[in-house]
Amino acid sequence: MKDSKGKGRQNATTAKPLIPRQGANEPYNSIFQRDWWLDTVAPGQWQSFEVTQGGKIVARMPIVQRRRAGVRLLKMPRLTQTLGPWVATPEGSLPTRLAKEEEWLSELASKIPQFDYFCQNWHYSVQNWLPFLWRGFQSSLSTTYILPDLTDLEAVWRNYRGATRTAVRKAQQAIVVDSGNDADSLYEMTSMSFGQWGRTPPYSREYLTRLVDACYERDAGKVFTAKDEQGNLHAALLLVWDRNTAYYLVSGSAPALRASCAMSLLMHEAICFASGVSRTFDFEGSVVKPIERFVRSFGAEPRPFITLRGYSRKLQIAQGFRDMFRQTAA
After folding, report:
1. In terms of domains, do 135 and 175 share one?
2. Do 55 and 135 sit in the same domain of this protein?
3. Residues 98 and 127 in one domain
4. How many CB atoms lie under 10 A from the CB of residue 114?
5. What are phi and psi of 319, to 5 degrees?
6. Do 11 and 179 form a contact (C-beta atoms < 8 A)?
7. Is the pLDDT confidence value at 13 over 60?
8. Residue 254 to residue 188: CA distance in whole angstroms
9. Dihedrals φ, ψ of 67, to 5°?
10. Residue environment code for 76-108, b if the CB has 16+ CB neighbours within 10 A, otherwise e
């Protein structure tokens, strides 16, 4: 990429030839709906509901189920950005296509098992949630950020903020980037990032290692690490991908070493690598203002996505009592 090469040593983060993974007729809209992904993040806890027509799947929706203290939870697994439905594109006029889509989505909604609490983030390509609204679900909008076209890396680089390009060049003078399946370094860095807020990562080292290994074995993910010439670890980042989209899934950095701008360099390297294996780069977005500002600085475009929620009558009553007691106590 022009103007992005510095004097710092770089490693082999070169992309492998594109491996076909996800075709237009496959019932998935992201890597997170793949069977192997769900087997990794929610072993024995998920099932997939399907709508077929003429022997072909026309709609599909995986669900992850858990029980906690007798409460039935249908929630997102850890480190899984989206689930929700995949829907085939019907043929015909626009009214015909919309009618078919609503029919298939309504059938999917009818298949969801009983629950006390339901929550799923949908892929931004699916915006029609009306059949779920008509069944009592609620929705809200969140935002992810994407680079929609990775084919022209020169254009991607030009769209970075000037300060971001400067940060990348600065880090290239002193930081060595490596890539592989170093889940331990990734967990160390994410623990440091959470630690500065007095928190711990919402996943265990074992969980993260299992996910990293599953992705790496399938040529669907790798960990990027940034170290200085003395071997000090500055930052780490996990990238996962299919042929459509590469996802910046999780990262962390050493708070005392952030002046090196290593995270900006890692993100840049991940984007360059992603251009060889995917078409789009998804930053996932964040409601945390500094994180949102950071990912936006790479020239990313916002994409709204739906978060769908549902509550059983039992849970609604329990929440009502809880809110009442809180108001009384206040």
Report:
1. no
2. yes
3. yes
4. 8
5. -65, -35
6. yes
7. no
8. 9
9. -125, 135
10. bbebbbbbbbbbbebeeeeeeeeebbebbbbbb
Dihedral (CA of 229, 185, 221, 143) sign: negative
Tens-digit pLDDT profile for residues 317-330: 666 556 555 555 55
Stretch 130-150: mean pLDDT:
95
CATH number assigned to the domain comprising residue 314: 3.40.630
207-209-212 Cα angle (round to 5): 110
Q: Which amino acid belongs to residue 90?
A: P
How many residues can be counted in the chain? 330
Q: DSSP E strands: which ranges in the chain?
A: 46-53, 56-68, 71-74, 86-87, 117-121, 138-147, 175-180, 221-228, 233-241, 245-253, 280-282, 301-311
CB 174 within 8 A of CB 260: yes
Give the whole-angstrom CA distance, residue 295 versus residue 284. Answer: 9
- Tell whether 311 and 285 lie within a shared domain: no
Show the domain range for 183: 145-302
User: How far is Cα 319 from Cα 285, in angstroms, rounded to an integer?
Assistant: 29
> For residue range 60-102, what is the model confidence (pLDDT) as tens digits?
999 999 998 889 999 999 999 999 999 999 999 999 999 999 9
Shared domain check, 183 and 123: no
- For residues 293 and 310, what is the distance between their CA atoms, to the nearest angstrom? 31
**Max Cα–Cα distance, the chain, nearest Å:** 64
* Position 271 pLDDT exceeds 80: yes
DSSP 184-195: HHHHHHHHHHHH
CATH number assigned to the domain comprising residue 275 = 3.40.630.30
Domain count for the chain: 2
